[in-house]
Amino acid sequence: MRKRRLLTAALVLTMTMSVPALDTDPAIADANGNSATHNNKSGADTKPVLVARSWCASDNLNRIVSNDPPYYPGCKNTTDRNDTRLLTHAGPNTPSGEDWDAFRVDSGCKVWWQLKVLFGLLTIDQDPIDRRGSWVGVWVRVHGDQTALIIREECGPVDDGVSNSPQPQNPPWEPPPTQAPVPPSPPASIAVKGNDYNRDGVSDLVGVRTSDGCIARWKGNGGGLDYIGDYGCGWENYTELTAVGDITRDGIGDLVAVRRSDGCLARWKGTSAFGFTYYGDYGCGWENYTELTGAGDVTGDGIGDLVAVRKSNGCIARWRGNGGGGLDYIGDYGCGWQNYTELTGVGDISGDGRGDLVAVARSNGCIARWLSYGNASFRYVGDYGCGWEKYRNFAGLGDLNKDGVGDLVAIRAADGCLARWKGNRNGGLTYFGDYGCGWERYTIA
């Protein structure tokens, strides 16, 4: 069989074949004939394609599989050489004269491909493999006497009305920095991505007590939360209390909240002793937004950023932390977000060093996930289980259990207990128990 494949490759190289026209230009080949770039629509992310040989499909019904090749990562049998997995780029010149039996389509990606049959004499277009709406990737396999030819790959948001980014548009208003009177009580904290308020490397949590409007503080201990006292009252005069991350570039988490009386955004600068110092408002009109969420660093500059859903149209607006305690509006990112609740910046749950988002679909209680991939853009990567409508007041923690991955907590409506999920570095969340009850008396962040 191997000799026949090598002969087939030689025949293909010596014959002029007619390849069906595609809807994009061919990839640019380098001096060695290997594809140097992807065919790519504007704005779509791309990455190398993983291919393998000697892992063939026995029939058409077993062509697409989710498991990895046998003998991972070798994907080899007793008669083949060891270098049987390869990162390559899409295009008509790749794989260049080689017999590849399988290729990987990662979650969030779509691959266009062709099939060489009849000893390579005929090339047939195949239906694209689209995994942009799924968080699970697949392997695509062909028969032993066929060859897969990767044509084009796109990795990016699927056009679902939420994850896809429109052209930036001007918001109804752009909040200029303004000065406002100092709040009547000493301001306190709320949680944020990397929400470490005492510089011990573990996320902390704050919550406003409903009975008296005072803000309570809990210090992260590597998996749990230790109550360390209140920090001022009067917080019932604010809404949308948000752990916005470090927007002052001092390595300590900060807080923002919308004042009920005038819709202005108040800011508190975190201190290393788990305290907070009020340092002015930052524009008004914020009552026009809901689901304010500290997204973590989604622009790659090391500064906390903010997102919120505009009430008038359901579009998500984004503000970039400027390092001086301010927030610069950088445009919207799709609409349809009114169909979700509990929008939460959950920290980095994919292991790429950027903040990610989760939200609960109002229609079915399933939790949807959007992974950040730079420049304040997000890619929808599918849901992660249902039944989340049973929880409220989600709070994303930068790292509660000291594993370097973002975590999530939420209050169960039935009993007021605090449930915890740890990020698994692959975009998922693993439940790891409750942490006390009675949390229904607080609004946490």
UniProtKB/TrEMBL annotation:
Q: Which residues form the signal peptide?
A: 1-21
The region called Disordered is annotated at: 156-188
Query: Pro residues bias located where?
Result: 168-187
The UniProt keywords, alphabetically, are: Signal
Name the domain of life: Bacteria
Task: Quote the protein name from its UniProt record.
Answer: VCBS repeat-containing protein
Top-down, what is the taxonomic lineage of the species of origin? Bacteria, Bacillati, Actinomycetota, Actinomycetes, Streptosporangiales
